[in-house]
Specification:
Helix content: 40-55%
Mean pLDDT: 90
Radius of gyration: 24 Å
Order of helices and strands: HHHHHHEEEEHEHEHHH
Number of helices: 11
Largest sheet: 4 strands, antiparallel
Length: about 270
């Protein structure tokens, strides 16, 4: 495969400081009220770190062994690739970056509650966010009341008993913050400004995360310290681990198409 020809097509979209489309999108989101936790340099460091993580995790010799070529100079070395799992990578990232990757809901009201096993031992802490909803009680002669509704930060799930208590007109039995907002916005007497901000931040966080996954995939693919095909395999491995750990779907067709075009020049069929 002609390496120079392959790498010459790299548009370096993963270089955020020079990615005009991304910078325009990011600034536009913030103009519309997105409370970003990161500047562009923070996001660039994340792209650089994760792309390097996968280069270290899957060196060229890893694929040479997979292809049946053993380097005798390193025959006695302990391969650490299997130990460099997703959690090991998260462990080395700042807490707010982990929150972005995991797609959690966030709010200025936040906390956690312990989760116990059958023996009463704490096994983990579950994050919570609070959504402030202002209720107009003028029909009851009570004026305005302030409700702080707690939800799981991992998925926005709200306790159905809290929904029933505070919003008896809502008939949802299983709901998260997004579904609750859709119900309440159709009713009069609620100020949903804070809830709407939480949802907008979360929706934009997810879109930002997905963009970063795409940029990381491209940076792995166009690493000119390795071969295009090994880079392709690294990028696919990255996407596979993202899908398995975040339980999300990703469109990887662009990776397959980019690599297939290069392999067709060599009359090689891509193995997926």
């Amino acid at each position: 495969m002609a390496k120079d020809n392959f790498f010459s097509k790299d548009r370096k979209m993963y270089d955020l400081r020079h990615n005009r489309e991304f910078l325009s999108w990011y600034k536009n989101k913030m103009r519309h009220g997105y409370n970003s936790m990161f500047n562009v340099d923070d996001l660039q460091r994340l792209i650089d770190f994760i792309s390097m993580w996968y280069y270290i995790k899957y060196p060229d010799r890893y694929y040479e062994i997979e292809d049946g070529n053993v380097d005798l100079d390193f025959s006695n070395i302990t391969d650490i690739s299997n130990n460099m799992d997703f959690n090991e990578m998260l462990y080395r990232l700042p807490k707010n970056i982990i929150g972005l990757i995991m797609g959690i809901y966030r709010s200025n009201y936040s906390g956690s509650v312990p989760i116990y096993d059958d023996k009463g031992n704490i096994i983990r802490y579950e994050g919570l966010v609070g959504a402030e909803i202002i209720k107009n009680n003028q029909t009851d002669g009570e004026g305005l009341s302030r409700i702080i509704l707690e939800a799981r930060s991992s998925d926005g799930l709200v306790n159905p008993n809290d929904v029933k208590k505070n919003f008896p007109m809502v008939k949802l039995t299983n709901t998260n913050l997004d579904l609750l907002f859709d119900e309440l916005k159709e009713l009069k007497g609620f100020d949903l400004t804070h809830l709407m901000q939480i949802i907008f931040n979360h929706t934009t966080d997810i879109e930002l995360r997905n963009r970063l996954i795409y940029y990381i995939s491209l940076k792995i693919l166009y690493n000119n310290y390795s071969t295009p095909y090994n880079n392709y395999r690294r990028s696919k491995a990255f996407n596979k681990e993202i899908k398995e750990n975040l339980l999300i779907k990703l469109d990887e067709s662009y990776l397959d198409e980019l690599m297939q075009r290069e392999l067709e020049k060599q009359s090689v069929k891509l193995k997926k």
